[in-house]
Amino acid sequence: MLLEEYAAVMAPNNLTDEEASTLPIAPLTVWFSLVEYGKIKAGDTVLVLGTGGVSVFAIQMASALGARVIVTTSSDEKGERVKALGAKEVINYVKTPDWEQEVLKLTDGKGAQHILEVVGGDSINRSIEALALQGHIYIIGFLKSMMAEVNLFALLAKQAQIHGIYVGHRKAVDDMNKAFNELNIHPVIDTVYSFDEAIKAYEHLGRGAFGKIVIKVSE
């Protein structure tokens, strides 16, 4: 493959090629949210919704940057796995449907300074409820719905800062890759498939994975 120089960046030297291949989308989205917009600092509380690709990176990166990470999930088994990645508290939203109230309880009523919102729909109002005063909500996905009715009074009362995130720019990639080196973060890879198993890889992706699915183009 021939590329213009501007189209390539230096990969972190602590990662394998397979690990480095996971960096351009999900982790950059997290970095752009927490670092570029949120100016995250050690001691902040980060609420991560779910355990999808973006969420897993958010848990790793936020905890490596010194934040307290709270994660919502429907699976106790996945809850144990995210704790191993650095999550401090896990809320099973099947057992605790009012997860926003549980976030407030865990933070002594203060709420989370950063929330990665991947659900969409009416989840935005629950995120606002769980938010700290003048906190940040990063709109990353809309698994439930692309449309939402927002409680504007709650938004104003919290002085919420809501950011629409669409990955990030070149400089952010370079900064993030340096951080992966310095903090020795390794992406979570569920399975690496060979190129002739590409269909199986997409089928696995359709079923859901914990971490990233990688297709190795050449041996």
List keywords for this structure.
8 strands, Rossmann fold, 38% helix, alpha/beta, six-stranded parallel β-sheet, 2 domains, globular, 9 helices, 219 residues
The rough form would be described as: globular
The H-level CATH homologous superfamily of the largest domain, spelled out, is: NAD(P)-binding Rossmann-like Domain
- CA radius of gyration: 18 Å
Helix content: 25-40%
Low-confidence stretches: none
Order of helices and strands: HHEHEHEHEHEHEHEHE
Number of β-strand runs: 8
- How many domain regions? 2
What portion of the residues fall into strands of 2 or more residues?
15-25%
- Round the mean pLDDT to the nearest integer and report it: 95
Q: Give me the side-by-side strand order of the main sheet.
A: 3-2-1-4-5-6
CATH class category name of the largest domain: Alpha Beta
Structural class label: alpha/beta
CATH architecture of the largest domain: 3-Layer(aba) Sandwich
What is the topology?
Blueprint: H1 17-20, H2 26-37, E1 45-49, H3 53-64, E2 68-73, H4 76-84, E3 89-92, H5 99-106, E4 112-117, H6 123-130, E5 131-139, H7 152-158, E6 161-164, H8 170-183, E7 189-194, H9 198-207, E8 212-216
Parallel strand pairs: 1-2, 1-4, 2-3, 4-5, 5-6, 7-8
Helix pairs in contact: 2-3, 5-6
